[in-house]
Specification:
By secondary structure, the protein is mainly alpha-helical. It has one domain. 68% of the residues lie in helices and 12% in strands. It has three helices and two strands; from the N terminus they run αββαα. Strands 1-2 form a two-stranded antiparallel sheet. The N terminus is likely disordered.
């Protein structure tokens, strides 16, 4: 392990249990992510009939994955819209004889 990795060690509390985390990320970033996980697990536990740690963790992970997938779909839609706009702009410039290089 490099000295950098050893320096980036933090103990986080998730769902009532402490976890030592060592990695390349800033400990403040790691703690912030752990807080997000802890919060989501508590939210899932309140809404769920089960309070078993493993089931709550899986449901929280699925919730995060769903959000990431929705954001990815939104990003793809924006990229597709931009590509269509670029194509339309190119067609419009060609139809009008407007060469963007001459600007």
């Amino acid at each position: 392990m490099s000295d950098l990795t050893l320096e980036n060690r933090v103990v986080v509390r998730i769902f009532g249990e402490d976890y030592p985390i060592t990695g390349e990320n800033d400990p403040k970033y790691t703690a912030r992510i752990a807080d997000m996980v802890d919060s989501r697990m508590k939210q899932v536990a309140r809404a769920s009939r089960s309070h078993a740690r493993d089931k709550v963790a899986i449901l929280a992970a699925m919730s995060f994955a769903s959000e990431a997938n929705e954001r990815g779909d939104s990003l793809k839609a924006v990229e597709q819209a931009e590509a269509r706009m670029d194509s339309l702009l190119a067609k419009l410039e060609a139809a009008l004889g407007d060469d963007p290089v001459d600007r």
